[in-house]
Amino acid sequence: MMAARWLPVMMWLIATAAGAGQAPGFAGTYWSDSERGWHWYEDPPKTSPKTRPTPAPAKPKPAESSPELTAFAALQKQLEDAQRIAFMQPTEDNVRRYLDLQALVVDKSSRFADVWQRVIWATPDLDYTVTGRPVNARALDVFNAQTQRNRATSVAALAKSHVLFFFFRGDCAYCHAFAPYLREFEAKFGLQVEGISLDGGTLPAFPRPRIDNGISRTLDVKHVPALYLADPASGRITPIGFGVLSESELLERLDVVSRPEAAGMLPSASKRMNVR
After folding, report:
1. Quick one: which of 139, 162, 174 has its CA closest to 253?
2. What is the spatial distance between Cα 38 and Cα 78, in angstroms, rounded to a whole number?
3. Is the pLDDT of residue 51 over 90?
């Protein structure tokens, strides 16, 4: 009797749920799905949690200025203001006040220079005349001689794998003057010098040069005499200099461009081509 009495109500609920299947709510979620039944408990649909606003980063507190920096800024402002006032109104009092402040600044600068110098004397690691190039005449002679020996060793090692390209013209007076020095340099340090004539002319020191086959145009050689260091193995050609160079200048430049970090300093200067 109980089941019979409730059966019409159940049928009515089922029919109502089926007719409102598209509507949200209780009927649309439970009664429209007969497979799940109506006695089972289900958790309510989860809702996405509200996104909490990201707190703004705390602004860093400004660093407190030291008394020395505060005093420096005040003295600098006083000096600048006094100078401007004296410039606009050059009265005796205004000029005197500016000169007094300037004398104070000069005195502080002198004391700083004295302490700086004594720190350098007592700390050889900070003294460039000890770790770098000396200024004393006798020490400078030793430094220069040692530098020349190191550069000569570097160029001698370079001579095993490199060659110098010497671009010239037969009607160039500077080329005529430079050519004998290049032959002496070649004999002394073993670095081969290959003469390349741009106009088909010759020089007494280079009676059988190579004739320019377009390499000068590729390297954009516009001034002679011109020297380029070539590495046949890699095809890299690097400019060394233009005009007449001394032996010490040649050694220095060859030593600099042959260092491992040299290519990164001016990568656009070197060219790559077949120089075999």
Report:
1. 162
2. 89
3. no
- The rounded Cα 127 to chain-centroid distance in angstroms is 26
The tens digit of pLDDT for each residue in 118-164 reads 998 888 888 888 888 888 888 888 888 888 888 888 888 888 999 99
AA letter at 91:
T
pLDDT for residue 276? 52
